[in-house]
Design brief:
The structure holds 2 protein chains of 2 kinds. In chain A, helix 4 runs parallel beside helix 8 (about 220-240), helix 4 (about 65-90) crosses helix 14 (about 315-340) and helix 5 (about 100-115) packs parallel to helix 7 (about 155-175). Chain A is mostly helical. Chain A is built from 17 helices and no strands. The radius of gyration of chain A is 23 Å and the shape is globular. Chain A has one domain (about 25-185, about 190-410): ABC transporter involved in vitamin B12 uptake, BtuC (Orthogonal Bundle), CATH 1.10.3470. Chain B contains 13 helices and no strands.
């Protein structure tokens, strides 16, 4: 009976396309992760003696209730899309670029340098030049851990973190020496920052066309971020580099046997990641501030990691995840005004959300893999279940959990 | 004169040795059991905020009794233990994610670090009346200690061994119980075998998850204690960002030590000295020619060079980082 039941369900499953099963599984995982996070958040709100429904609706009201709110949300999402894309590109190849933080800091310095030393150029030339300077700065900073990884095997998690520490000091040096603030008003020169960038070198505000307040600093960098997401999707799904990256990421051994240069692929991924990371800070300095201020530590690189996990490293998923993150961040404002809950509650909620997403996805992935394996075993066609690039879903836990993290590769040994 | 500078730098290096060594020992237990823990930094951050709170709370609660300042002796110690307890509780999240749900160890560790920053702010605003990034300075700390004999060295060198926190000595002595527990007890043998060959361990009737949970919880306790030491004994209060990268430096020291508690002492001190250079030796001959911002890069550059140079010469626990499938996988 049991055997019959199993083969019947296997037969039914075989008629269902595999991508649909993967998609349903992932959607279910995502929904249950949201459910868990909302529930846990509700319990916390109750512990503070407030009504969860009121608090949640005030968060949504502040972020989506008006064009201004939506403008703020999208402006918050813009740098996060770049940052999460940078992380996801490396992640596809089994690499963790924790160094986006440092890469965008350095890119802000090179961009500021380009702005201030080429201020005679007209806007349509200056802005692209500045963006290229930022991209090159990010790539240069990402190249170091990339080369160290390929040449010596030093684990990128440790080296990129150290590069972040160096980058913070580099920014401090730049605004203390070569890019020092010279236009300070009389008697007020304590402000450590660069000079104001020329007006034609800033990116235009697009909020005015949608009735959004200029205070939100919504800029066309948002469209650039969306284009970047599409380019990354194309790169990973439709090019040879993308195929090799996924091969290296899911099984370095097989990739090597298949003739893929592991080191070359990893280095190229790092450079692409660094290029994307270079654009992270542009929303802040070109659309918001118009100069590079001191102590610019807002953890955009680290937040990008969270957004990448939330979007499951899928470029389109990342856009939505960044917007969701923006909604929650914008909700902080509402919390402060309308409730007694400390604003840090939002950060806790975001934390719970990432953990539940990571855990439920892992759970779903294992279930799917087990089912595919079982079905393949019954049908006697093992090779089917491990086709190299069929769907967007990551492979089974075996590849992800073990082979990608062989001790020889792991933590720089 | 320069001797005094070097001596003071040495004294600072002992303080940072304590932080790096305690955190490194935490990582040692976790990785020897097979769970990679790059969340050490986050566990330390939780230790700093809870340790600063604990030290103040217990000092005030115990106060004076029978004319003895009970609080001043036990307050900071209980504070550090409280930090260790909270680090352990937070490490449970990493344990559940990696051992029970078999989430990738690095992914979970990264998330631990991310969440810790927010959680620390949340705890801080709860503990310290809405101050989310720092507490009032000048918290209680233990009486400072001069090491007998060494603190009477001539030529200014005595400064290196004066005014140390007693916890520095405790941290240095931790090498004995840690080494003994790993190498001379049944528990240690089993813990290590979970990190080398979990299948074989299981075949002997030992529960791999149980030992791995213990390893991860111990790493939380050590990293939490280390963060609490930093807040209560070094800084004197909780401030956001007082441990930038120290958890990762500890991880680097652990790798270079080849997961050995005795060698870890040397590398923890070496990195501690690298951290002390920008704090004290910025007037030394070659170093003073650099802008101060470049001097601050030294610890990070030393770490990168060391990691890149030592790769391939150390061997991590064979099964570290791998998900353990239990009975033949699911």
């Amino acid at each position: 009976m049991a055997v019959e039941g199993m083969s019947a369900s296997a037969a039914a499953a075989r008629t269902r396309p595999q991508w649909l099963e993967t998609f349903t599984g992932q959607a279910l995982a995502l929904l249950s992760a949201f459910g868990i996070a909302i529930l846990a958040g509700a319990l916390l709100i109750l512990a503070y003696g407030e009504s969860p429904i009121e608090v949640y609706s005030s968060i949504l009201e502040a972020s989506l209730g008006s064009p201004d709110g939506i403008g703020y949300v999208l402006a918050i999402a813009t740098p996060l899309i770049f940052s999460a894309l940078a992380i996801s590109v490396c992640f596809k190849g089994g690499l963790f670029n924790i160094g986006v933080e440092g890469q965008y800091l350095v890119a802000m310095v090179t961009a500021a340098w380009a702005e201030l030393s080429l201020d005679f150029l007209p806007g349509p030339i200056l802005v692209p030049v500045v963006l290229i300077a930022a991209v090159l700065g990010g790539m240069a900073w990402a190249a170091v851990p990339g080369i160290l990884k390929v040449k010596t095997g030093a684990h990128e998690v440790v080296t990129t973190i150290m590069m972040n520490g160096i980058a913070i000091s580099l920014v401090a040096w730049a605004i203390n020496f070569p890019l020092k603030f010279t236009e300070a008003p009389e008697g007020q020169n304590v402000d450590l920052r660069t000079d104001q960038f020329p007006d034609q070198g800033l990116v235009g505000d697009i909020g005015q066309y949608f009735g959004v307040t200029p205070g939100a600093h919504l800029s066309w960098l948002l469209f650039l971020a969306i284009v970047a997401a599409i380019v990354v999707w194309f790169l990973i799904r439709r090019t040879r580099l993308g195929y090799e990256a996924r091969a290296v990421g899911s099984s370095p051994g097989s990739a090597k046997a298949g003739g893929v240069s592991i080191g070359g692929t990893q280095l190229r991924l790092f450079l692409i990641s660094g290029a994307l990371a270079g654009l992270v800070g542009m929303q802040q300095i070109l659309a918001d501030r118009g100069h590079l201020p001191q102590n610019y530590v807002v953890f955009l690189g680290f937040t990008g990691i969270a957004v990448a996990f939330l979007g499951q490293n899928n470029p389109i998923g990342i856009i939505f995840a960044a917007i969701l993150w923006g909604i929650l961040s914008r909700g902080e404002v509402a919390l402060q005004i309308q409730s007694e809950i400390p604003r840090e509650f939002i950060i806790i909620l975001q934390g719970i959300l990432i953990f539940s997403v990571v855990i439920t996805y892992q759970f779903a992935r294992r279930r799917l893999a087990a089912r595919q394996l079982q079905r393949a075993g019954e049908a006697g066609e093992l090779e089917d279940s491990a086709g190299p690039d069929e769907d967007a879903g990551p492979r089974g836990p075996e590849e992800r959990g073990t082979e990608a993290f062989e001790p020889a590769e792991k933590k720089g040994t | 004169m320069p001797f005094t500078d070097i001596a003071v730098a040495l004294q600072i290096s002992f303080t940072y040795f304590t932080i790096i060594y305690l955190t490194g020992l935490g990582g040692l237990y976790s990785e020897r059991s097979g769970i990679v823990n790059i969340g050490l930094e986050g566990l330390m951050i939780i230790g700093t905020v809870t340790g600063a709170f604990g030290a103040r709370f217990f000092t005030d609660t115990l106060g004076f009794a029978d004319g003895i300042a009970l609080g001043l002796v036990w307050g900071p110690i209980l504070g550090i233990l409280f930090g260790a307890l909270c680090g352990m509780i937070f490490a449970t999240v990493h344990a559940v994610a990696t051992i029970t749900f078999r989430v990738d160890h690095i992914v979970s560790g990264v998330v631990i670090n991310l969440v810790a920053v927010g959680l620390a702010r949340f705890l801080s605003s709860t503990f310290f009346d809405g101050q989310s990034t720092q507490s009032d300075p000048g918290g209680p700390h233990l009486a400072r200690l001069d090491i007998p004999g060494l603190s009477s060295l001539p030529g200014g060198l005595d400064r290196a061994f004066e005014g140390l926190s007693p916890i520095v000595i405790v941290a240095a002595l931790m090498v004995i119980p840690v080494w003994y527990s790993l190498n001379r007890t049944r528990w240690g043998l089993r813990l290590r075998s979970c990190g080398e060959n979990p299948e074989a361990t299981r075949s002997l009737g030992v529960s791999v998850p149980v030992y791995r949970y213990q390893g991860v919880l111990l790493s939380g306790a050590f990293a939490g204690a280390s963060g609490a030491f930093l807040a209560a004994e070094v800084v004197g209060n909780w401030r956001e960002g007082t441990a930038p990268g120290l958890g990762f430096i500890a991880l680097a020291a652990l790798i270079l030590s080849n997961w050995n508690p005795i060698r870890l002492m040397f590398f923890a001190w070496l990195f501690g000295f690298a951290v002390a250079i920008p704090l004290r030796l910025n007037n030394a001959p070659i170093i003073s020619a650099l802008p101060p911002q470049f001097i601050r890069m030294i610890p990070y550059i030393v770490t990168i060079v060391a990691i890149a140079g030592f790769v391939g010469r150390v061997r991590p626990p064979a099964a570290a980082g791998k998900a353990y499938e239990g009975a033949g996988g699911t």
